[in-house]
Amino acid sequence: MTQKEFVTVINCMDGRVQESVQQWMQETHNAKYVDSITDAGPNKLILDGTEDDIKRFKKMLDVSILIHHSSLVAVVGHEGCAGNPAPEREQCTMTEKAAEIIQSWYPDVQVIALYATLEGQIKQLSE
Ligand SMILES: [Zn+2]
């Protein structure tokens, strides 16, 4: 696999899921740098946030995709999320839907959905 310079994560701001997600992206997708876009429960915000929330995500995605040429974006939901307290199954459904929305904004990049546990496990939900 050729090395990717930049990949992108849209992750929760929760400190418990930063390192595991970054490391998984670097190892699984052979990435050098992981651009991090964070908020509290971003999967929920992409689905039903305000216009300003969406603008903020798009502004940062533009930098990562158009300027850093990231070709892979991962949307992350996680266990024990305070910003989006939905149970695991619902959390995963929301993350997959959020990934579809991001995909519609940026059709030329690969968008995947991930679920992170507090023990550091990362599950890929969609391709
Ligand atoms: Zn969270």
Write up this protein.
This is Carbonic anhydrase. GO terms for molecular function: carbonate dehydratase activity; zinc ion binding. It comes from Aureibacillus halotolerans. By secondary structure, this protein is of the alpha/beta class. The protein has one domain: Carbonic anhydrase (Beta-carbonic Anhydrase, Chain A, 3-Layer(aba) Sandwich). It is built from four helices and five strands; from the N terminus they run βαβααβαββ. It has helices spanning 18-28, 42-48, 51-67, 88-105, and strands at residues 4-12, 31-39, 72-78, 110-116, 122-126. Strands 2-1-3-4-5 form a five-stranded mixed sheet, sandwiched between helices. The radius of gyration is 13 Å and the shape is globular. The two termini are 17 Å apart. 35% of the residues are buried. The model has no long low-confidence stretch (mean pLDDT 96). The protein binds zinc ion (ZN). Zinc ion is lined by residues 12, 14, 41, 78, 81-83.
Write the layout of secondary structure elements.
Layout: E1 4-12, H1 18-28, E2 31-39, H2 42-48, H3 51-67, E3 72-78, H4 88-105, E4 110-116, E5 122-126
Parallel strand pairs: 1-2, 1-3, 3-4
Antiparallel strand pairs: 4-5
Helix pairs in contact: 2-4
What's the short story on this structure?
The chain has 127 residues and is of the alpha/beta class. The chain has four helices and five strands.
